[in-house]
Amino acid sequence: MDRLYIFDTSLRDGEQSPGASLTSDEKLEIAFQLAELGIDIVEAGFPIASPDDAAAVRRIATLVKGPTIAALARCKPEDIDVAWDSLRDGESVRLHTFISTSDIHLKHQFRMTREQALEHAVAMVKRAKSYTSDVEFSPMDATRSDWAYLHAVLRAVIDAGATTINIADTVGYTTPGEFRQLIESIREHVPNAHRAVISVHCHNDLGMAVANSLAGVLAGARQVECTINGIGERAGNAALEEIVMAVKTRPDVYGVQTEVDSAQIYKTSRLVSNLTGIVVQPNKAVVGSNAFAHESGIHQDGVLKERSTYEIMDARHVGLSDSTLVLGKHSGRHALRQRFEEMGYRLSEEELNRAFSRFKEIAEKKKETTTKDLEAILADEIVSVHEVYRVQRLQVTCGYPVVPTATVELRLPSGEDRLEVATGTGPVEASYMAITRIVGLPIRLAEYSVRSVTSGIDALGEVSVRIECNGRTFHGRGADPDIVVASAKAYVNAINKAASTPQQAGERVKTGVGV
Ligand code: KIV
Ligand code: ZN
Questions:
Q1: DSSP 279-302
Q2: Are 314 and 259 in contact (CB under 8 A)?
Q3: Which ligand is nearest to the CA of 167?
Q4: Looking at residue 385, what is its pLDDT?
Q5: Which residues does ligand 1 sit against, CB inside 6 Å?
Q6: CA angle at residue 268 from 71 to 474, to 5 degrees?
Q7: Which atom of ligand 1 is nearest to the CA of 237?
Q8: Ligand 1 probe mutation, 110, 138, 203, 510, most atoms within 8 A of CB
């Protein structure tokens, strides 16, 4: 079977999801996990967008071993040079450059003729090639481009040295049948197409990103660009977990194999969701909380008799543990470590200590601690956010008819504790007012949501917030049986990210803007 290369762009196109913004530490953490997952190429960022992006790409290229690390650049000399500068210390790296080929984009956005765009593309692929042998070229908005012109551009960039040509359905416009024909036409009409890997990059505006990508594979594409949980601009990109499980479940149809370790999928999905704050819908294929749940009696009956009656994938193959061992307040460190290992997490002694004391705290309040609770504990305790402030104490008075009042004590970076009292329309607002006063930062709460981690009256509440501070957006999360405590933790978690991010002048350049 042919090898299908999986190119993950969660850290670049995925990070362009509305509201998703990751710190450099979080990007590095995700990149390490993508390496564990066995991804072939990780697109780490768009270095010209901001010095932060460039620094994150540099860290990932130097520290993450296994995947090839790619960086994006417009067809502009300064973009290519800055992208190369971020990649140059990596072991295996790729420069990825793009320009639009559709008349709509060329006329209204790029204000270029077709000839000029082709010249830029060739010149910039050559420039990229002068730095590295691994060069990818993307014709942006390829699916709305004139096919004959697209063929001419692809032929010219392959001659100029492109080793991957990535056919982008930038606005999610194509359909599976049409996209398959487009890829076939490239193989037929671009005489040097066999010298490059054909890649597909589909957006999900009409809900067909995965179907279109797989149609591309059927037509001979051997690289798919996708993101974890399908995050990305607007309706997102093709979901990586769906592509991988489709080709693994139906080798008879797709005839390709990937090196992705599917048992790492669920863990990667949780990590990306926790760090971006983009919640996975319950009915999401492969990684949604209902993806392997059977509600109807007939289905339950069938699955109990023989799993394959209603399940086409084994939940364990995507990393969902089916362990029935429930932990309680008498469980020890050893049992906890063992459970984490079953879930795919190997913790250091120090991490286990932190997780264990948190587990004990929760187990005192909750009868049974499940895998989902443990995941929430890990996300709270182990995620590498520099702890600038810590909630030491929180007391709220609320009810009817009283004025909700919160007393909050935070540990400051100096080690000193500071206490504030504030009122609000409810207990959460009152606590946020007190916290904001202590930290003294210009914060706007942009989003707040709370959900229950498991079912049951004693379930952990998981709060997700998005704050704006000094023109940047930060996501925070926190979990606790008490949702006011979870809310305070989530808020302080986001503030810690804001407080450890250097302030920067100006807006980030998003892909395609200011071309
Ligand atoms: O959607 C798109 O066209 C892109 C390109 C930069 C590949 O993300
Ligand atoms: Zn894209």
A1: PPPTT-TTTSTTTT---SHHHHHH
A2: no
A3: 1
A4: 65
A5: 13, 98, 138, 140, 166, 168, 170, 201, 203, 511
A6: 70
A7: 1
A8: 138
Indicate if the pLDDT at residue 292 is higher than 90: no
Residue 203 C-alpha to ligand 2 middle, in angstroms? Answer: 6
Opening angle at CA 501, ends 499 and 504, nearest 5 = 120
CA of 225 from ligand 1 middle (Å) equals 10
CA-nearest residue, atom 4 of ligand 1 = 170
Q: What is the mean pLDDT of the chain?
A: 92
Question: By three-state DSSP, how is residue 464 classified?
Answer: strand
Structure tokens at 182: 């487009």
Distance of alpha carbon 449 from alpha carbon 451, whole angstroms:
7
304 C-alpha to ligand 2 centroid (Å): 42
How many whole angstroms separate alpha carbon 164 and alpha carbon 170? 17
Residues 6+ apart with CB under 8 A from 362: 369, 373, 377, 460, 480, 481
Residue with the smallest CA separation from ligand 1 atom 5 is 140
Phi, psi of 125 (to 5 degrees): -65, -40
pLDDT value of residue 39: 98
Residue closest by Cα to atom 2 of ligand 1: 170
pLDDT digits 0-9 by tens, 402-459? 999 999 999 999 999 999 999 999 999 999 999 999 999 999 999 999 988 877 888 8
Q: Which long-range contacts (CB under 8 A, 24 or more apart) does 213-217 make?
A: 213/238, 213/243, 214/176, 214/243, 214/246, 214/247, 214/254, 215/176, 215/177, 215/179, 215/180, 215/183, 216/167, 216/179, 216/180, 216/183, 217/4, 217/247, 217/254, 217/256
For residue 399, CA distances in Å to 339, 426, 430 come to: 40, 9, 13
Distance 504 CA to ligand 2 centre (A): 26
Question: For residues 233 and 513, what is the distance between their CA atoms, to the nearest angstrom?
Answer: 13
185 CA distance to ligand 1 middle (Å):
21
The residues, any chain, with a CB within 8 Å of residue 350's CB and separated by 6 or more, are none
DSSP-derived 3-state class of residue 99: strand
Asked if the bond preceding 401 is cis, omega within 30° of 0, the reply is yes
* Total-model pTM: 0.87
Is 350 in a helix, a strand, or coil?
A: helix
Structure-block tokens of residue 86: 């971020």
